[in-house]
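Listing S7. Sequence submitted for prediction.
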Amino acid sequence: MKSLLTLTSPALILSILITTNPASAEPAPQPAVKKAAPEKNTTPPTGKEDGWVQLTGKDFQNVNCQEDTWRWEGGHAYCTGQPVGVISSHEPLVDFELLCEWKHKQHGGNSGIFVWATKESLDALRAGKGRLPKGIECQVLDLGYKENYEKDGKRKADWFTCHGDVFPVGQNVHMRPFPPAAPDGRRSFPTANHSKGTNQWNHYYIRAEKGVVRLWVNGHEVSGGDQISPASGYLCLESEGAPVEFRNILLRKLPLK
């Protein structure tokens, strides 16, 4: 009697071998991994679109600065940096966009823009308790700040950058930072370095919407965070020890859906 293999076609023999030898069988197809949808707003707006409003000194109120800390010429703000404190919008905001330019006048200068600062913390500042509000801060640092920080050789500037960190301030303010994150897991570090140095204008675009804050530095999206709580509050400009200027401050409120 002839063997079964002799009477079987080569194609059928291959099929039998694959079926009877699991090691040579092709792996079962795996379900496709669902990727996150790309961001729709990869390029910042110009400010010439509909809905933008230019902010001036009339759109801000003093919280815990001195009368001469801030000086305005139209939409151009000059801040002495003394004392440490903030000015805030008159009304709270929910979803909005902000465009502005800033420059430091001193090597190693420090400042910031607060998004969704809480009313309770601003009331506390007015009562003389503390210096800065609680909320989400978009850092405004001169490139020399890191150099000054490490000047004595005893400290390492590994917990912040000078290129647009975004982070929560206050124990009851929560944010999940976009990667890369600071060593303590609270700050969103920028994905690239785009800030300019002392006496050079930097451009920020901030989008705060539905519990998410995203920051663009000089045309590049670099940092932010989501799952933010609270996700409404006041817009603040910060005075923090060094002269700084802001100009072309444009605000556009976003519709609540």
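Caption to Listing S7: primary sequence and predicted structure tokens for the chain studied. Confidence is low (pLDDT under 50) at residues 1-40. DSSP finds three helices and 15 strands in the chain.
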